[in-house]
Design goal:
single chain, about 80 residues, 3 helices
């Protein structure tokens, strides 16, 4: 899936954007899981809406990750 040889052949700009995409995927995933798990969330949001927002962020992270993989396969 992640071929190190094709990663080395990319231009520095493509590598930077790929790594930035992975970082943003991780950010959205951690934020979504954090919203669901964190009991004493500093912002006053009902638990139902926090879970809904967390699931939405996790789904968005999965979509971003699938787009990164699809883009990598095309290169």
């Amino acid at each position: 899936m992640l071929n190190l040889r094709s990663f080395q052949q990319k231009s520095p700009q493509q590598r930077f954007l790929f790594i930035l995409g992975l970082v943003m995927f991780a950010f959205y995933m951690v934020l979504g899981v954090g919203l669901i798990v964190w009991k004493d969330f500093p912002v006053d949001i009902e638990r139902t809406y926090r879970i809904l927002l967390g699931v939405l962020l996790i789904v968005y992270a999965a979509i971003r990750f699938s787009r990164i993989l699809k883009q990598k396969e095309q290169d």
